[in-house]
């Protein structure tokens, strides 16, 4: 077991003593009510994380003024009426020996248009939100300084141990700091000295209202990764000035909405990808530094602190995936940690307008629900050892049922093994390992390399059967699809089939795109063609996932033939129609990636022949890992 002394060594932010170096990063949940008040759901969510052993919780972005919220269900602190609810929340967190701050926030130009016209330092629209903001008058900026400070005063009255100003990710304070978004000519714009004025005045005004001893944190994007945006040369100066006017801790992040892969880092960015930025800032200041960014491994987290690259590590998504990450890490139970895969499903959910969820932890937002032990255990038979089948087995066993799981392959994990092969998808293997280890820990009867028939299932007389047999692909109805120079994408990714130097991949879904990327990384000359010529590349991905995925895809040198239709395949390649003209895309090998079909045959054979039949995952309809795990969780809870 790797010792984690540095990670669990107490430390201070000003006079605030924290029991360890693990900070829960602020993450929007949409669990507040529609008027910005604390809800029961929000309290249960934070209580679960406090129970898990974290040292410090920074409660999510909280609006400091009407018109500054990013969503109607964002927490609010622009009136004293919000104090009682937030007092309740801080009290709950404190029960577990955890200190807490609240993040004070104004969306600025990144506010959704449906909420009304946003305001900003300058009338420059965000390329993602696309709404033209109204430039704030000087006196309005002065008032916002007061609004931030008053919100901090309310936070202190609500029992919070500290506040954090959200000066990162392209929100209003960041917009004033950045030359990319601040083109003002008054005292709040121009050179860096003037661009810093808004942030510095907020801190100074807050210090007047909360006193000398109340800790103030500031989150900053050390680099925005846009032309004329914040970079390390400027953020070093900003950091030192923030320290000089009373900031007690700097929380280092990166990016804005237009470079969202740096605000919610996808799996293809390396673990700890923001640590070099934090290390640089730390060498410029004397106050403690927090760093976030793909820190999903306790050994990595410990090494960051041990090497002095940051004083604290902020875990956001890792605490969604497993609220008990700190407790398990401290006890050395590394194999029991459900590690974040950086799949960005959480962000995709929020961007679709739905409350926060996690692909691999189906209990997010349901923390008040308790798994009850059944009074009458059932004999449950599960067919399929992919993520859905394993999750159903795990939950059903925890509840006291007797579970047997049949898997036709020699290993558990199903198609996650294939999904983990493309570049940047390796984190998927952590979920396979977690679920497999849980099945072993729970002593579930797992029968590998055993394909079971409907007749055998019926003869075993189970009380309930869960079918999780996944999906399959077959040759599409394209002339020439059965030629010798044609192979299937799954066979290419798995290494079962080789391809020539020049390849055409037919199919623009996620699997087709990933296959093209795998081949491009191998040095192949790759052209990607959508099967129907309609729709978007990797269109089944969520907004956040797809945006970061396409950045990676297009940087790999793949030629994409858009707005074309497949006519046929021949020995020389693929014939397409584009702009009314036929065109041959020459290829040594043609790789087909058609839409998968549900493996529903076994379920159909069992209908009406057993007491309970449940169908989950891709054999209902081919989708993603989140659907499989959430459906497995649900059926396990309801048996």
Can you walk me through this structure?
It is a single chain. This protein has 639 residues and is α/β, with parallel strands linked by helices. The protein has three domains: 24-285, Aldolase class I (TIM Barrel), CATH 3.20.20.70; 379-473 and 597-638, NAD(P)-binding Rossmann-like Domain (Rossmann fold), CATH 3.40.50; 486-592, FAD/NAD(P)-binding domain. The chain contains 21 helices and 28 strands. The strands form seven sheets. It has an eight-stranded parallel beta barrel with strand order 3-4-6-9-10-11-12-13, surrounded by seven helices. It has a five-stranded parallel β-sheet with strand order 16-15-14-17-28. It has a five-stranded parallel β-sheet with strand order 19-26-20-21-22. The longest helix has 20 residues, at 138-157. The radius of gyration is 26 Å and the shape is globular. The relative contact order is 0.09.
Map the helices and strands.
Layout: E1 11-13, E2 16-18, E3 22-24, H1 40-51, E4 56-63, E5 75-76, H2 83-94, E6 99-105, E7 119-120, E8 134-135, H3 138-157, E9 162-167, H4 172-177, H5 192-195, H6 197-210, E10 216-221, H7 232-245, E11 249-253, H8 275-282, E12 289-291, H9 298-306, E13 312-315, H10 317-321, H11 325-330, H12 345-351, E14 379-383, H13 387-398, E15 402-406, H14 416-419, H15 428-441, E16 445-447, H16 454-460, E17 464-467, E18 471-472, E19 486-488, H17 489-494, E20 502-506, H18 510-521, E21 525-529, H19 543-554, E22 559-561, E23 564-570, E24 573-578, E25 581-586, E26 589-592, E27 597-598, H20 601-606, E28 613-615, H21 625-638
Parallel strand pairs: 3-4, 3-13, 4-5, 4-6, 6-9, 7-8, 9-10, 10-11, 11-12, 12-13, 14-15, 14-17, 15-16, 17-28, 19-26, 20-21, 20-26, 21-22
Antiparallel strand pairs: 1-2, 18-27, 23-24, 24-25
Helix pairs in contact: 1-2, 3-6, 13-15, 13-21
């Amino acid at each position: 077991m790797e010792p984690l002394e540095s990670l669990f060594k107490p430390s201070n932010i000003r006079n605030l003593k924290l029991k360890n170096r693990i900070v829960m990063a602020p993450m929007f949940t949409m669990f507040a009510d529609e008027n910005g008040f604390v809800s029961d759901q929000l309290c249960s969510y934070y209580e679960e994380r406090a129970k898990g052993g974290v040292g410090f919780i920074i409660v999510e972005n909280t609006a400091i003024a009407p018109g500054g919220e990013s969503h109607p269900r964002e927490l609010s602190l622009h009136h004293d009426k919000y104090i009682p609810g937030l007092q309740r929340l801080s009290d709950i967190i404190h029960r577990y020996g955890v200190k807490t701050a609240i993040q004070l926030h104004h969306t600025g130009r990144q506010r959704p248009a449906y909420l009304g016209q946003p305001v900003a330092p300058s009338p420059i629209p965000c390329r993602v939100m696309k709404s033209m903001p109204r430039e704030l008058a000087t006196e309005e900026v002065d008032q916002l300084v007061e609004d931030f400070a008053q919100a901090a005063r309310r936070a202190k009255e609500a029992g919070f141990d500290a506040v954090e100003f959200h000066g990162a990710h392209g929100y209003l304070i960041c917009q004033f700091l950045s030359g990319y978004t601040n083109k003002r000519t008054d005292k709040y714009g121009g050179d860096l000295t003037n661009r810093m004025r808004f942030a510095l005045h907020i801190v100074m005004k807050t210090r007047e209202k909360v006193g000398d001893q109340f800790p103030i944190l500031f989150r900053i994007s050390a680099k925005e990764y846009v032309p004329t945006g914040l970079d390390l040369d400027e953020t070093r100066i900003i950091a030192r000035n923030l320290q000089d006017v009373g900031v007690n801790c700097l929380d280092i992040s990166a990016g804005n909405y237009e470079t969202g892969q740096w605000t919610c880092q996808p799996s293809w960015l390396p673990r700890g990808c923001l640590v070099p930025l934090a290390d640089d800032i730390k060498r410029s200041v004397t106050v403690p530094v927090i760093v976030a960014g793909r820190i999903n491994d306790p050994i990595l987290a410990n090494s960051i602190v041990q090497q002095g690259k940051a004083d604290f590590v902020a875990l956001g998504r890792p605490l969604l995936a497993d609220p008990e990450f700190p407790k398990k890490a401290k006890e050395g139970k590394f194999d029991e940690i459900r590690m974040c895969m950086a799949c960005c499903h959480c962000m995709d959910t929020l961007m679709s307008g739905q409350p926060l969820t996690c692909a691999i932890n189906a209990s997010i937002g349901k923390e008040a629900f308790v798994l009850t032990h059944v009074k009458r255990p059932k004999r449950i038979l599960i067919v399929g050892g992919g993520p859905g089948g394993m999750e159903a087995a795990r939950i059903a066993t925890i509840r006291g049922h007797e579970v047997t799981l049949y898997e036709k392959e020699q290993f558990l994990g199903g198609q996650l093994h294939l999904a983990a092969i493309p570049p940047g998808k390796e984190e998927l293997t952590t979920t396979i390992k977690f679920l497999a280890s849980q099945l072993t820990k729970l002593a579930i009867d797992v029968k590998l390399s055993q394909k079971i028939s409907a007749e055998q299932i019926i003869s075993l007389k189970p009380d309930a059967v869960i079918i999780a047999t996944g999906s399959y692909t077959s040759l599409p109805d394209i002339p020439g699809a059965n030629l010798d120079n044609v192979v299937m994408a799954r066979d290419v990714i798995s290494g079962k089939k080789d391809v020539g130097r020049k390849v055409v991949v037919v199919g623009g879904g996620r699997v087709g795109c990933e296959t093209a990327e795998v081949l491009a990384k191998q040095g192949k000359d790759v052209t990607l063609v959508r099967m129907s010529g309609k729709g978007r590349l990797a269109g089944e991905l969520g907004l956040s996932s797809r945006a970061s995925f396409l950045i990676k895809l297009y940087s790999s040198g793949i030629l994409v033939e858009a707005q074309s239709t497949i006519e046929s395949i021949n020995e020389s390649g693929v014939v397409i129609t584009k702009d009314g003209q036929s065109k041959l895309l020459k290829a040594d090998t043609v790789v087909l990636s058609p839409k998968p079909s549900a493996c529903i045959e076994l379920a159909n054979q069992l209908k009406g022949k057993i007491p309970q039949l449940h169908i989950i995952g891709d054999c209902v309809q081919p989708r993603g890992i989140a659907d499989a795990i959430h459906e497995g969780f649900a059926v396990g809870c309801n048996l």
